[in-house]
Amino acid sequence: MRGLGDHLSIGERIAFYRERRGYTQPVLAGLVGHSTDWLSKIERGVRKPPRIDKLAELARVLRVPLGDLMGQPVLLEDEEKHMDDVPAVRDALMSPRRLSKQLFGPTAERQLPRPEQVQVFVERSWGDYQAGLLGDVIAALPGLLRAAQELEDLPPGDQRRCGLAVSARTHHLAATTLAKVGESDLSWLAAERAMRAADESEDPLSLVSAARSGTHALLANGRYEDALELGDTAAAWLASQVRDDDPAALSLLGMIHLRAAVAAARHQDRHTTNSLMEKAKRLADRLGSDENHWQTCFGPTNVELHRLSIELDLENIPYVVEHGGIDVSHMPAERAVSHRIDYARGLCLKGRVDESFRELEEAERTSPQLVRNNPRVRETLRDLRKQSPVTGGSHSSGLLAMAQRCRAVQ
């Protein structure tokens, strides 16, 4: 529920929705196979929040989106401009023109754009996304989505196939960005549009790239088995379609394996997770270096970053703390910040307050928007404040200030 309060902990959110559904603690605990004491301690913040798979189960029982329990990311305004243009993105995705090409076909006098023109702006926004400039991406998306729709109206032929590939890229960008800012339902809509356009483009790499957006949307909606199925299907299909020495294909195939591994980990399937991670590692070794084909950031470093994130989901905190000090200075800001947030969470759970806070500070310096939008950051900041002295301490004032910037406290 939007507006429930970013400052609430996961436990407080569970209690809110439990009471709203009229469940007692014993009833809800029984529905998810746990004791009343387990649920009571989570709601009171005495024990750490449930694993992601258990949160997804609680969300299903309480009949709320997973993001409502985790705390939705909220696109904040910066010092210069208000960046919350998500309603405009929604309007572009829900245009009546999307409903029927028979009813809303192009008129004779309407001049349609050229694919290469639109592609320039789409790739520029992909660069903004990887730089962590979410507000700029959200602001650009309404115009890009309208242009993508027009490209799909091009007459049959090579130009239309190119236009469909650009439309797929545009909707993929929308799906990934919307998942990042907590619009999970809209993310799925954009991902479905990306895959439909890619299907019609007859471009194998476009289709598998679009499938990545589908896994993002499914993960954001807590649909881990579906995300795993999509990833496995896309990987098997791509392997039969392209040369095995194409670095772009290797990168996309590797990223699909990584996204599927995340889904398996969140489903608590360690065996499948390890198998997928090994496939991704072999592809990264063949690639030989960290590359960014199709904005994948795929390579040996990204495989290790995903391994750390997966171990965090599997609650292997000692592994995260021991191996988390990876050099991410050469990675795009979005990927580097995601890693620092995960590493900070692991350090926090091990009680290493100062180190955890330093990671969050560095992440915020790299991309304030990514950090201040992130519900995991808010949960970590609340936990760090519990572990820190109320007064004194080397980071107490800075910790409070960051918690306020991120809406972790009122």
TrEMBL record:
One GO CC annotation: cytosol
Domain HTH cro/C1-type residue range list: 14-69
One Pfam match: HTH_31
InterPro entries: Cro/C1-type_HTH (IPR001387), Lambda_DNA-bd_dom_sf (IPR010982), TransReg_Diox_bact_type (IPR050807)
Stretches for region Disordered: 363-397
GO MF annotation terms: DNA binding; DNA-binding transcription factor activity
Keywords associated with the record: DNA-binding
Biased composition regions of type Polar residues, renumbered to the chain: 388-397
Basic and acidic residues bias (residue ranges): 376-386
CDD domains registered for this protein in UniProt: HTH_XRE
PANTHER family (UniProt xref): HTH-TYPE TRANSCRIPTIONAL REGULATOR, METHYLPHOSPHONATE SYNTHASE
Protein name: Helix-turn-helix transcriptional regulator
Species of origin: Streptomyces cupreus
